[in-house]
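Hey,
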Amino acid sequence: MKRVLGIVLGGGAGTRLYPLTKLRAKPAVPLAGKYRLIDIPVSNCINSDINRIYVLTQFNSASLNRHITRTYNFSGISEGFVEVLAAQQTSENPQWFQGTADAVRQYIWLMNEWDMDEYLVLSGDHLYRMDYSKFVERHRNTNADITLSVIPIDEKRASSFGLMKINDKGRIVDFKEKPKGDELKSMQVDTTTLGLSPEDAKKKPYIASMGIYVFKKSVLEKLLEDNPDQTDFGKEIIPGAAADYNIQAFLFDDYWEDIGTIESFYDANLALTQQPRPPFSFYDETAPIYTRSRYLPPTKLLDCQVFESIIGEGCILKNCQISHSVLGIRSRIEAGCKLEDTLVMGSDYYEPFAERESGLQHGGVPLGIGAESIIRRAIIDKNARIGRKVLILNKDRVEEANREDEGFYIRNGIVVVLKNAVIKDNTVI
């Protein structure tokens, strides 16, 4: 794996995750109370013994850069690194990144400086755990030019994905984007070819791309050079290469979730609280998910009721009820609060006691969630200040709303309170 270079695609403006991406790059969005999205692919790389990793992004990259710099420091005697490559304008490339392939194309000169055999191209907004060494091993064993990681899916979900068809040797011979009807039926494949059991193969006769690829170094360079107008791997570069190159499929039959929308991000976070076993676990000692070490004090709970929830480090909870929720680092929940089906991202700092008291006396709103507030089915972004007796319930079941001037949005019926927002006492949302 020492001859594999990891490339994490940080995505564009992250419009589907807005407003969580208003002030940060998509890979920097907080996850599961203490992590960030970027920690998933980077940790998978490190656990797979791939320790040279570039992260490509072009929007709001400051917090992402800060997180990576503070988190992934390899030994001085090691050549390992995790480095952000932000979009830049040059005389050769006066444009910003136009797509996934274009992002790699603009920095291929830098990647060429490393003596590598393969490029592993990853997405920055998926939740899964994978040993990439098995992925690369299949790529090498089949002498593939390109290998795609695919998931087996059933007919009900198949029309929502880009599907592929393989021959009896696992080579991909056809692509269809979200097919329907007879076109969908024509994309059925025998997934036992890729290692699925006969029983599961009947239930899941389709394969969909995960947006994860292994390229031979020379093949990627040639494809990018020969097709300067093609800017996207999944829609242009790879389908266009199917006729002339050996493109293989690698089956990944485990938990994988694309968390690129507000609803999928919310659902994936709250699914972590499921009992007795969540679909994804951060407790696997053999393949840990790494993140920044913060050296925070233990969480303090004073006369609280907590059900099926995750609570990060350094939180202070007083006489409150927390149900099916995720609370991020340094969250502060005051007396009489009720939180249900809610993701609280926490805070970047503690507010001094004197400052909190002074703010309360002068009608201000301290950091955290004020006394007797009730919040249900919401995402509270970092450093938000929720006043006392605030109700965030979306009783009218509004599906979509843009209320940025009031400090919140509603996406798919989920209330999203903005980072650094101030919601005053007695507000009803």
